[in-house]
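Methods — Computational structure assignment.
A single polypeptide chain was analysed. Its primary sequence is given first, followed by the predicted tertiary structure written as structure tokens.
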Amino acid sequence: MQTIKRERPSATVGFWLKGIFALLLGASMTLGFAPFYLWPLVPILLAIFMALIFKERGKRAFWLGTLFGFGFFAVGLWWVRISIIKFGGSPLTFDILVTLLLAL
């Protein structure tokens, strides 16, 4: 008979906090590029992210990496939304949805 391994509720809450932190780290990566040019932040933020996923396994590391990348691309591609509004004339909710799907 197999036993089902269940996670403690505190482990799940900790993972969600790590996920939010990974999302914020990814969003902060855009500060290293134009127009901010805070390029020394990029290796520091990457090192913090690597420390965040260091002891994680499989699926958890994958989801943390996905959230990090989503935060990075969602903030970095936000200008696409403005282009869609200006040249496409589509509704704001559609523009935001398309931009977030592109980032994902």
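Note: The chain has five helices and no strands.
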